[in-house]
Amino acid sequence: MSTNLKISAALVAAFVVTVAVLLGVNNSGADDTDTTEAGGAPVVREDSHRLSTAADDRVTLVEFLDFECEACKAAYPFVEQLRDDYDGQVTFVARYFPMPGHANAENAAVAVEAAARQGRFEDMYHRMYETQTEWGERQDSQAEVFRGFAEEMGLDMADFDATVRDPATLERVLQDREDGLALGVEGTPTFFLNGEKVEAQTTDEFIELIDAALTD
């Protein structure tokens, strides 16, 4: 593990431990492969969004996330550091899991999915976390705020608007959530490493699990 990763892990350890204890990173493992789990729900679908892809695709880390979730935002810098340090070695997949208690979680996911249809998933993914404090925890719709992000990104707005309105876009988001529920996801963020729920109390333990998967 690089020095940069050690430093970053130390800085965010307290946040990630809180995520683990309260919101489902600490879940029991399951006997499955890297694509399916008990009950038949896939951990990764063919259309799942890959933030980074490993050359050999042997190790895959999947995160079920909610863009309005403060714990997901707290874990976000750590995930980004992992992506940097394991670039080319680990495939990172992001899946939607909007929580019912977040009024704009579905709106945010739909906006991200609409951006994804124009090849801009990662850009909107970053934008949601970077601006969460501006729109999160509000009860009124923030759809116009998300549309503003799309405009700032230079997206085709006619296409974006049509995709947001298309019921199939929300269905795509909710399919991820349905898979998560079938896999035992109860909160966000929840991680799966090669198909098994991550059990880690600290960032060091999390990193050790990845390193072990790479040496198997």
Instruction: Tell me the span between the first and last alpha carbons.
Output: 17 Å
Principal-axis shape? globular
Order of neighbouring strands in the sheet with most strands: 1-3-2-4-5
Q: Can you give the mean pLDDT? A: 87
Major beta sheet summary = 5 strands, mixed
**Tally of distinct domains:** 1
Number of strands: 5
Give me the CATH superfamily.
Glutaredoxin
Structural class: alpha+beta
* Rg, Å, rounded: 17 Å
Q: What portion of residues is helical?
A: 40-55%
Q: What's the CATH C level?
A: Alpha Beta
Proportion of residues in β-strands: 5-15%
Number of helices: 9
H/E element sequence: HEEHEHHHHHHEEH
Which stretches are low in confidence, meaning pLDDT under 50 for 5 or more residues running?
Answer: 1-34
Family: Belongs to the thioredoxin family. DsbA subfamily.
Keywords: Disulfide bond, Oxidoreductase, Redox-active center, Signal
Pfam families: Thioredoxin_4
InterPro entries: Thioredoxin-like_fold (IPR012336), Thioredoxin-like_sf (IPR036249), Thioredoxin_domain (IPR013766)
Quick description:
Belongs to the thioredoxin family. DsbA subfamily. The chain is 51% helix and 10% strand.
Architecture overview:
- This is Thioredoxin domain-containing protein.
- Keywords: Disulfide bond, Oxidoreductase, Redox-active center, Signal.
- Residues 23-215 form the Thioredoxin domain.
- Pfam families: Thioredoxin_4.
- GO terms for molecular function: oxidoreductase activity.
- It is a single chain.
- The chain has 216 residues and is an alpha+beta fold.
- It has one domain (49-215): Glutaredoxin (3-Layer(aba) Sandwich), CATH 3.40.30.10.
- Helices cover 51% and strands 10% of the residues.
- It has helices at residues 3-23, 70-85, 105-116, 121-130, 132-135, 143-152, 157-165, 167-182, 203-215; strands at 49-52, 60-65, 91-96, 190-193, 196-197.
- A five-stranded mixed beta sheet has the order 1-3-2-4-5.
- Strand 2, helix 2 (70-85) and strand 3 (91-96) form a beta-alpha-beta unit.
- Helix 3 (105-116) packs antiparallel against helix 4 and helix 3 crosses helix 8 (167-182).
- The longest helix is centred in the N-terminal third of the chain and has 21 residues, at 3-23.
- The chain starts with a helix and ends with a helix.
